[in-house]
Design goal:
Layout (H helix, E strand, L loop, with lengths): L10 H23 L6 E5 L14 E2 L2 E7 L2 H9 L7 H13 L3 H20 L6 E4 L3 E4 L4 H13 L4
Length: about 160
Amino acid sequence: MIWKASKHRPRVPLVCLASVLLYSGVTLADQHQQNLPHVIEVFTSVKYPFISARGNGNSLHGLDVTIYEIDGIESIERDLSIDMPADPAKSKRIALDRIQHMDDQSTTKMRMAALGLAKAMQYGVDRYPAIVFDGQAVVYGVTDVQTALAHYRAWRREGKR
C-alpha cells in the first residue's frame, strides 16, 4: 500500500529521530574524546595469536574487532591435502569432493582469510601481525589490542590524523 505524504506529520517520529541522532552524536563524541577508533582490524596468523585483554570475544570496550587470520587458506589447504594419492586425476576428484563438503567453520575461515588478504593489500599492510585502526593507522608487530590501542591513542594525541 502506498501512502500519500502529508504536510502535517506527527511530532513523535521527529522527536524519536532527533533523539537517535543526538545519542549517536554523543557516542561518536565520546569515542573521539577518548581517541578511540571506530574500526579495529587485526591481521595475524596461527603463529601470532590475537590477544584480547579485557575484552569479550571480538568486542573491546564496546568496539568491534575483526580478526583476519592471514594464513587461514594455507592451513585449510594442508587439511584438504592430507592422504592424497599420487595419481593427479584421483587427487583432483578427492580435492573437489573435499572442497564441496567443507564444513561451515572451514568455509568461514577460508572466506575471512581471503577477505583479510584483500584488506591487507588495500591498506598497504606488508607484514603481520598488524592492527589497523579506522583504515588509516597501522601498528605492526603487536597482537595485543590494548598495547596497539595505546600506540594509536598516543599517535592521535600528537595530532597525526
